[in-house]
Amino acid sequence: MDKPWFVYVIQSQLTRPGGKPGFYYVGATTDPLRRLRQHNGEIKGGGRFTSQHRPWKLKAVFGLYENRSEALKAEYALKHSKRGHSRVEWTPEDSPWCRGLGPNHPWIDQSIL
């Protein structure tokens, strides 16, 4: 079996002008923890947008998805139905593509939410 896929939500820890909280970013990957390290510049491979808003913290992990296609459909559904912090609170009632524990995933450090 191939590696399972996940959809993740990260938040920039930089405060935006006017005291607004940092941006949220949604992505899909087989390894959310590696991807977070990439977004934070610890290892090669982060995105252009995320490189300008470091550091990032993992806020939610959704999944398991069987393949990349499923994960990208879930990512699209989340990006087009929720904005800001509400992306962390995505539920199966919002979309049949929502799976897993989201903000309660064991990879999320509950003390820093």
Brief descriptors of the model:
113 residues, single chain, three-stranded antiparallel sheet, 3 helices, 21% helix, alpha+beta
Describe the structure concisely for a colleague:
This protein is α+β, with helices and mostly antiparallel strands. The chain has helices spanning 32-39, 48-51, 68-79, and strands spanning 5-12, 24-29, 56-65.
Describe this structure in words.
The protein has helices at residues 32-39, 48-51, 68-79, and strands at 5-12, 24-29, 56-65. The chain has 113 residues and is of the alpha+beta class. It has one domain (5-112). The chain has a 3-stranded antiparallel beta sheet with strand order 2-1-3. The longest helix is centred in the middle third of the chain and has 12 residues, at 68-79. It is globular and about 35 Å long. The termini are far apart. The mean pLDDT is 94.
Query: What is the number of domains?
Result: 1
Order of helices and strands: EEHHEH
Low-confidence stretches: none
Helix content: 10-25%
- The average pLDDT score comes to 94
Question: Assembly state here?
Answer: single chain
Number of helices: 3
Count the E strands: 3
Main sheet makeup: 3 strands, antiparallel
Structural class: alpha+beta
Main sheet strand line-up? 2-1-3
Form type:
globular
The whole-angstrom Rg is 13 Å
Into which percentage range does the β-strand content fall?
15-25%
| Head-to-tail CA distance between termini | 33 Å
